[in-house]
Amino acid sequence: AEAKVEIRKSVCTHCSVGCTVLAEMRDGVWVGQEPGWDSPFNLGTHCAKGASVREHAHGERRLKTPVKKEGGKWKQVSWEQAINEIGDKLLEIREQSGPDSVYWLGSAKHSNEQSYLFRKFAAFWGSNNVDHQARICHSTTVAGVANTWGYGAMTNSYNDIHNSRAIFLIGGNPAEAHPVSMQHLLKAKEQNNAPLIVCDPRFTRTAAHADEYVRFRPGTDVALIWGILWHVFENGWEDKAYIRQRVWGMDQIREEVRQWTPDECERVTGVPGSQVERVARTLANNRPFTIIWCMGGTQHHSANNNTRAYCVLGLALGVIGQEGGGANIFRGHDNVQGATDLGVLCHTLPGYYGLSEGAWKHWARVWDVDYEYLLNRFQSKELMESAGVPVSRWFDLALEDKDNIDQPDNLRAMIFDGHAPNSQTRLPDMKKAMEKLDVLVVIDPYPTMTAVMQDRTDGVYLLPAATQFETYGSVTASNRSLQWRDKVFEPLFESRPDQEILYLLAEKLGFADECFKNIQINGKEPLVEDLTREFNRGMWTIGYTGQSPERLKMHMVNQHTFNRTTLRALGGPADGDYYGLPWPCWGNAEMKHPGTPVLYDTSKPVAEGGLCFRARFGVERNGDNLLAEGSYPVASEIRDGYPEFTMAMLKKLGWDKDLTEDERASIEAVAGDKTNWKTDLSGGIQRVAIKHGCAPFGNAKARAVVWNFPDPVPIHREPLYAPKRDLVADYPTYEDRRMYRLPILYRS
Ligand code: SF4
Q1: Where exactly are the transmembrane stretches of this chain (predicted)?
Q2: 148 vs 144: CA distance, rounded Å
Q3: What is the pTM of this model?
Q4: Residue nearest atom 2 of ligand 1, based on CA coordinates
Q5: Which of 25, 334, 445, 596 has its CA 20 to 30 A from that of 89?
Q6: Which atom of ligand 1 is nearest to the CA of 35?
């Protein structure tokens, strides 16, 4: 009899477009692969990378068993032996040098659940020495964009690009890096006659499709944008009503831009003045246009400036918050957005909660453990509330005087879980550092560069991880949309899913009962759905609360069967134009929030999910809705100086009467005493906000919006300077021109 064919749905593991993979199974064997034909991401296709995922998952070089290096030779070992030996070594290091002596390097290749667990695991180990690839790709975007308007993420989506009337692309090459997305650009060209402007020092395959190719000097992005804006302001093309209603600080930008005359812009960027004017005119005449950027804009020492300048261009011309407009920021790996959102970073907890006492208490509540327990694990309040070391610097720590093992900063063990440093600089230093470590652990489906780049003879362990096709869970594409991946086949050889490996390690290290307290364990494998539910309970900052595993699974099923009626009943997309559930997607009792395909949608009132830009100290009345921006009750905000405002606003909203006496006293004490801003206030304010159906807590009929976001940690707080002088030899005052920090207020 013919074998039964079954289709399993997964998501490509190569890039952040998030194309659906339909895996054709016969008797449990993955025999064929198709793109998701009805996925609005795929447009019926895969690129060459996506078309090869089945081969990658079955590659001959897969790591088949745990191995360790002994006397310069690789030796096969059992899982039990590997976990025992690694665990004993880590416990010894912890005993001698403290928990910060071990570094936990996670991955943008992990699912959301694995990322969340990884960050939680590091917290239970007691260290903020945790990070992943986003540090070296788009962390400058997150800092620049979040400081401009709140969420540091793509505002629209890949598939919204075909609604654009023009495309301004800078520092990206989607034809090669995000190939399927290129179809959306070409569709905009075809159906809207949308001019494609590509700014890049290098002529790329994407530039070959451009209507206007702008070759500019590397590192002069800000000058180029200011040069374009010079024409915009000079000709009065800016969107004056939009700026008046929604933007603070544009006058300062206008002042700055005045200096960027065509001659000055040409001198610095090398772009002819006539071309800069043509670009400005094209953008002004074709709105909404979208702004797209990628790592060509972000991997600069001045990249925060670049990303903020791109935002300012969109704000000046009024295209942020509209379909076909927005900032479409192309991220790299398939789950780099999710791993960032879930806090696999040395300076945040899941949901961009900072590291303050209040934030830790919030997560301790979600994790159902005492705050003191976590504090004990860290052994130091200071370490608990300080950013760890970023991935780009860990080797400096390891290279410090290693003979002094009492030195708390001394790094003695590295766990590379799904991370190979191929794209990092200073590889020789990294190699040296790897050789100085007491133990190096690499967890990956393949022996990576990390496994082989050092010349150690002992103390290296390679643990075979299952691929994403051998496990299941959710993944967040660059457009903030969560999709569910089915398990396609059982783990090959002796490989195990990362969540199981972390459980084995936690067991050995002695904190499995606490770390997995409310997570069902099957055999040794934590139930993925329980991990999703747990982060649903804690991720109020950015709206990861409405994407339950049931909804995510249902979305994938129904979108693939065109069952739009069922999908709409579940709060799914009405027009089928996007996939999954893009955050913010607020959870409440009904769990019907459809997600937010366009951030800051200017067509909606703020209280219905419309625009909610970062603002400081603003309280506005909007019909029956009182819009009160400026204080999202995250403890890091409170630490950064919001308690005074928080209390004033609570009073203004009339919510202060819902506080208990203790909470009131605590807030007033903190508000009045600026030396004590670290006191935890978040619990009480959150409770009040939930009671009033505050929008971040999932009620579209909220009578008020109280919303703000944690500042990035000091690591991002270098001054916002333009590129250094040495990039442009005869440019004397460039580094002295500061970009203005823009407080932006959206009134709706
Ligand atoms: Fe995979 Fe990206 Fe290609 Fe889509 S565009 S198939 S997600 S690599």
Answers
A1: none
A2: 6
A3: 0.82
A4: 15
A5: 445
A6: 6
Order of strands, sheet of 130-131, starting from the edge strand that comes earlier in the sequence: 73-76, 67-70, 460-464, 439-444, 413-417, 102-105, 130-131
| DSSP secondary structure, 308-334, as one string | HHHHHHHHHTT-TTSTT-SEEE--SST
Instruction: For residue 46, report the distance from its CA to the centre of ligand 1, in Å.
Output: 6
Give CA separation, 308 vs 167, 252, 257, 487, 718, in Å. 18, 14, 14, 40, 14
CB atoms within 10 A of CB 743: 17
The whole-angstrom separation of Cα 712 and Cα 717 is 7
Amino acid present at 505: L
Tell me how far apart the alpha carbons of residues 330 and 171 are, in angstroms, rounded to a whole number: 10
Whose CA is closest to atom 1 on ligand 1? Answer: 50
Q: Which of 601, 666, 66 is nearest to 319 (CA)?
A: 601
Per the model's pLDDT, the better-predicted residue between 64 and 545 turns out to be: 64
Pocket-testing residue among 13, 49, 475, ligand 1, by greatest number of atoms within 8 A of Cβ: 49
- Domains plus CATH for the chain? 5-57 (2.20.25.90), 67-136+336-479+492-519 (3.40.50.740), 155-329 (3.40.228.10), 606-716 (no CATH)
Instruction: Determine the distance separating the centroid of ligand 1 and the alpha carbon of 577, expressed in angstroms.
Output: 18
Q: Residue 585 phi/psi, 5° resolution? A: -135, 105
The alpha carbon of 501 and the centre of ligand 1 are apart by a number of angstroms equal to 28
Minimum-distance ligand 1 atom for the alpha carbon of 334: 7
Residues present in the chain in total = 748
Nearest CA to ligand 1 atom 4: 19
What does 638-707 look like in DSSP terms, one character per residue?
HHTT-HHHHHHHHHHHT-GGGS-HHHHHHHHHHHH-GGGTTS--HHHHHHHHHHTT-GGGT-TT-SEEEE
Return the pLDDT at 45. 85
Distance from Cα 453 to the centre of ligand 1, integer Å:
29
Q: What is the mean pLDDT of residues 304-318?
A: 86
Question: Which residues does ligand 1 sit against, CB inside 6 Å?
Answer: 12, 14-15, 17-19, 46-47, 49-50, 178-180
Q: Which residues of 289-314 are buried (b: 16+ CB within 10 A; e: fewer)?
A: bbbbbbbbbbbbebbbbbbbbbbbbb
Per-residue model confidence as pLDDT tens digits over 562-606: 444 444 444 444 444 446 788 888 776 677 777 888 887 776 544
Of all protein residues, the one whose alpha carbon is nearest to atom 5 of ligand 1 is: 180
Which of 9, 11, 14 gets mutated to test ligand 1 (max ligand atoms within 8 A of its CB)? 14
The pLDDT, as a whole number, for residue 666 is: 61
Q: What is the mean pLDDT of the chain?
A: 78
Nearest CA residue ID for atom 6, ligand 1:
50
C-alpha 715 to ligand 1 mean position (Å): 32
* Predicted interface score ipTM higher than 0.95: yes
d(CA 551, ligand 1 centre) in Å: 24
Highest mean pLDDT among 347-356, 400-409, 550-559, 653-662: 347-356
Residue with tokens 């780049």: 453
Token pair in block for residue 215: 């070759």
Give the Å distance between the CA of 441 and the centre of ligand 1: 30
Residue 345 Cα to ligand 1 midpoint, Å, equals 25
Token pair belonging to 520: 């069902």
Nearest atom of ligand 1 to the alpha carbon of 178: 5
Of ligand 1's atoms, which has the minimum distance to the CA of residue 181?
Answer: 5
> Cα–Cα distances in Å, from 194 out to 161, 164, 188, 563, 731?
10, 7, 6, 32, 35
* Residue 728 · residue 585 · CB < 8 Å: no
Place of tokens 């459809």: 594
pLDDT tens column, 51-77: 999 998 999 899 999 999 999 999 999
Q: What is the pLDDT of residues 155-213, one digit of tens each?
A: 998 888 988 999 999 999 999 999 999 989 998 999 899 999 999 999 999 999 999 99
